[in-house]
Design goal:
By secondary structure, the protein is of the alpha+beta class. It has two domains: 13-86, Arc Repressor Mutant, subunit A (Orthogonal Bundle); 96-264, 2-Layer Sandwich (Beta-Lactamase). Helices cover 43% and strands 18% of the residues. It is built from nine helices and eight strands. The chain has helices at residues 22-35, 43-50, 54-66, 83-94, 97-113, 155-161, 166-176, 189-202, 246-264; strands spanning 41-42, 70-73, 78-81, 116-123, 126-133, 205-208, 215-223, 229-238. The strands form two sheets. A five-stranded antiparallel sheet has the order 5-4-8-7-6. The radius of gyration is 21 Å and the shape is globular.
Length: 269
């Protein structure tokens, strides 16, 4: 009896590539390129970055503009992400059960500590923040949502990394780079691994002016029902607001809330 061919409904891992639509993949690559440049990209820059011909690039760009996934701005012109992506992003967040569960935890955490709290999901070892709750009367911190952040320079990122093997941490940092954001940023894998060992021991990570001067973040990981790190929650505050010894008590409270979120996701460890 001959072996049955894979079907589109249940393609095995080895044959997933055969169902990739090249034009769709190229259009998504263009969106990814533009998402990483705040000022947008010109047709020439997109053509160079994508490796496509100018005509092929322009056809894809015009299609994305017509559908609202890109917008055309002056001076070039240059192309930026369009409002259709904003609407889709909002819908995607609404469809994530994690967002609802995390929102409840963040509200309670911000009320208890009077600090801004955030939740990030883990994506390729990097934190992607999906929600934020500002504490009463606190400084408002600008937090872009839906964007991969540096894992080595954020407490949420370090909380996520603390749950991974050292070799995986090194590989992630080699991929992302370790650029100094401030004079306090950890920029070597060796120093980061030391910091992560302390985070594992405590159950939370501290980012002390490593991403922005005068700002401190404390983050703790949460886990899915399989015991795999799914992300982290964190709080942000001005360094002058707390004594250094108070960081540890803040971390304990953040860790308790992260544990609560883990239980809501079905983790029993």
């Amino acid at each position: 009896m001959g072996s049955s061919a894979a079907t589109p409904e249940t393609p095995p891992e080895a044959t997933l590539g055969k169902y990739t639509v090249q034009s769709v993949s190229r259009a998504l690559d263009i969106l990814d390129m533009i998402a990483n440049v705040r000022s947008g990209l010109s047709l020439t820059e997109i053509t160079k970055g994508s490796g496509l011909s100018k005509s092929a690039s322009y056809s894809l760009i015009r299609t994305l503009v017509d559908r609202g996934y890109l917008q055309e701005v002056t001076d070039g012109p240059r192309y930026k992400l369009g409002m259709s992506l904003v609407r889709m992003g909002e819908i995607a967040l609404d469809q994530m059960p994690l967002a609802d569960l995390a929102r409840q935890v963040l509200v309670h955490l911000s009320d208890e500590l009077a600090m801004t709290s955030r939740v990030a999901i883990a994506e390729d070892g990097q934190p992607v923040f999906i929600d934020r709750v500002d504490g009463p009367g606190t400084v408002r911190f600008h937090t872009p949502l839906g964007k991969k952040e540096h894992p080595y320079a954020t407490s949420a990122g370090k909380a996520i990394l603390s749950c991974l093997p050292d070799e995986q941490v090194i590989a992630i940092c080699a991929r992302t780079g370790m650029i100094a954001k401030t004079s306090h940023t950890i920029t070597t894998p060796e120093k980061l691994l030391e910091d992560l060992a302390l985070a594992r021991e405590r159950g939370f990570a501290i980012e002390n002016e490593e991403d922005a001067l005068g700002v401190v973040c404390v983050g703790a990981p949460f886990f899915n029902h399989n015991g795999i790190v799914a992300g982290a929650i964190s709080v942000t505050f001005m360094k002058l607001d707390l004594q250094t010894e108070q960081f540890l008590e803040t971390g304990r409270i953040v860790r308790e809330h992260a544990d609560q979120l883990s239980k809501s996701l079905g983790f029993s460890g």
